[in-house]
Amino acid sequence: MAPAASVSRLLGAGVCAGPLRPRLLQSATPGRARPSGRTLASAATPAVREPEGSIDLNDRILNEPLKHSDFFNVKELFSVRSLFDARVHLGHKAGCRHRFMEPYIFGSRLDQDIIDLEQTAAHLRLALNFTAHVAYRKGIILFVGRNRQFSHLIETTARDCGEYAHTRYFKGGLLTNAPLLLGPKVRLPDLIIFLHTLNNVFEPHVAVRDAAKMQIPTVGVVDTNCNPCLITYPVPGNDDSPPSVHLFCRLFQTIINRAKQKRRHMEALYRLQGQEGPGARGGGPAHPPSLGAYPGDRSSPLPEESGSHACP
Amino acid sequence: MAAPCVFWGAAVSYRLFLGGRVSLALRQGVWKAAAAELQILRLRHTTGVTAKKNVAALRRETYTVDFIKKQIEEFNIGKRHLANMMGEDPETFTQEDIDRAIAYLFPSGLFEKQARPIMKHPEQIFPKQRAIQWGEDGRPFHFLFYTGKQSYYSLMHEAYGKLLDVEKRQNQLQAKGLFSEKTKTKDLIGSRWLIKEELEEMLVEKLSDQDYAQFIRLLERLLTVECSAEEEEFVQRFRRSVTVQSRKQLIEPLQYDGQGMAFSTSEGKRKSAKAEAIVYEHGSGRIKVNGIDYLLYFPVTQDREQLMFPFHFLDRLGKHDVTCTVSGGGRSSQAGAIRLAMAKALCSFVTEEEVEWMRQAGLLTADPRVRERKKPGQEGARRKFTWKKR
């Protein structure tokens, strides 16, 4: 399985910054001193060289999820039926419709737009998969939302999965002028998840544009009055009803916890294998994870859907 | 000019270093000449340094954790040395002993107490600062780090969470039908909310006025609903007790003269008039000023009204005799001085509640207004000379 193909399947939507991202993340992973070139190695070899085994281990831990299309088993978390029950398909009135949301709208009933849940399901799978991969690689995830009704919920969700939230007044240069506002060597978020793309005056949130400027990928729940353009993984859906927002928060929390748990398992597994010796290393878990592998999540997996045409 | 020169010098020297690496013989000669010239240029330009202000020092000083630790160690060692110098036991040398020792060894006549020599624990001298907010991998510790004001917003989050809990509990009780509408009046008198500066100090963060107002509003909302002991304790953390003003009022002790009549003496001032009044417990409302009857001493009704005011306020118009001496000032200020002296003296004959009423009426406060000086270039204190257009 060529890495390029898996990467393109992973990212799906043909974003041009896509192929760069995994490589950037790989080089940003701390604790790895990859020798820059074999030619210069003779100059300062004894102090710098790491044991060959640990580089190999890290590579394998990071590359293993990229070999499977659905490593974190995202499709069992929800179904079109559960989205419908959570009222995700309800959009705003036709007068509020944004022009770029028209492809995602199924139709309108009594002047209220209805969002196409098949497309929503496909987009949501991509978004959750990407979030899981970012969490697996120990990225910083920032939840953003400006609706006061759900501010407490979003902050609680972020705290429960060990990530970060920002549901307050967004200061101008927070992302673009971070060294001044937050500290000299601050690390910016690796992913921003928008539960609400608009702010309290129905304008696009400043963080959407700033994340695009700082080349931070974004996942966002876009309603029928939102602009999905600058968001890397838009998820068309309702962002105003409580059941809908609760569902999205629950999904993100579950998938992030699952990804972190998986990372801990893989590290433990590879550490054990490393201790046993290089001879006993027999390829690791080449099989895709079984459906019952996540004890903390939902019990019954849902039947496979024909969502193989995930790339729009 | 010095700063840009230094940068330029640094850049050139960097290039020089790189150039040296390539190392062709011809070039080396050229570079060496350039380096020599640079030295001369540097000498010429560094003379201006002492005249310029040090921009780096104007920035807020940040102290590292190691520096503070070193200071604490030095303080502890110095404390022991001081104890030895004073001939006392280093183990039981408290902060008061340190203060006394320093005042003895370095006597200072400076009026400003904060300008005198002090030796205190570094925690009290160096302002509290934030340590680095993230770990080795770069992940911040606090989940609200990216908001910028993590302590304040986490406090708001906590308070709002408590409010939601209370409302949920009330809903549950209402569903069961056990909800009772009792509103207990909390003891809010005698305490005040934290002021903005105190809150900033508590959170080690800068706040805006709107932030502070929002926070106080949220806490007040939490107080209006019925909450449990835990929430009460949370709210009480942000209240400070207020000393009741009336207890500060000094009440003169009663004295008794030869006939057994109780009387009380006190003083009063107004502008440049000083008065001393002796109020007797039983009498018929006679007032003697400097040995003269008040009707003759104060022919103007307004002054006599001023003298009447304390007794009229307490409904004791014809019940006390007063003898007073007054000097300085004019007629109005003498009247005001006597009024203050009489009111203070009356406090001894009256209940505490009435003393509080008098204080709130302004009878016990000395009038701080004094004559403002005349300024040069003006005709009076405020009046300017006539302005002529041409």
TrEMBL record, chain A:
Keywords in alphabetical order: Mitochondrion, Ribonucleoprotein, Ribosomal protein
Subcellular location: Mitochondrion
SUPFAM superfamilies linked: Ribosomal protein S2 (SSF52313)
GO terms under cellular component: mitochondrial inner membrane; mitochondrial small ribosomal subunit
Gene3D superfamilies tied to this protein: Glucose-6-phosphate isomerase like protein, domain 1
Family (UniProt): Belongs to the universal ribosomal protein uS2 family.
Name assigned to this protein: Small ribosomal subunit protein uS2m
Gene for this chain: MRPS2
TrEMBL record, chain B:
Gene Ontology biological process terms, A to Z: translation
Entry annotated with the keyword Mitochondrion: yes
One Pfam family per UniProt: Ribosomal_S9
Disordered as annotated region, ranges: 369-390
GO MF annotations, alphabetized: RNA binding; structural constituent of ribosome
Keywords assigned by UniProt, alphabetized: Mitochondrion, Ribonucleoprotein, Ribosomal protein, Transit peptide
Gene Ontology CC terms: mitochondrial inner membrane; mitochondrial small ribosomal subunit
Location within or outside the cell: Mitochondrion
Family statement drawn from the similarity comment of this UniProt entry: Belongs to the universal ribosomal protein uS9 family.
Protein name: Small ribosomal subunit protein uS9m
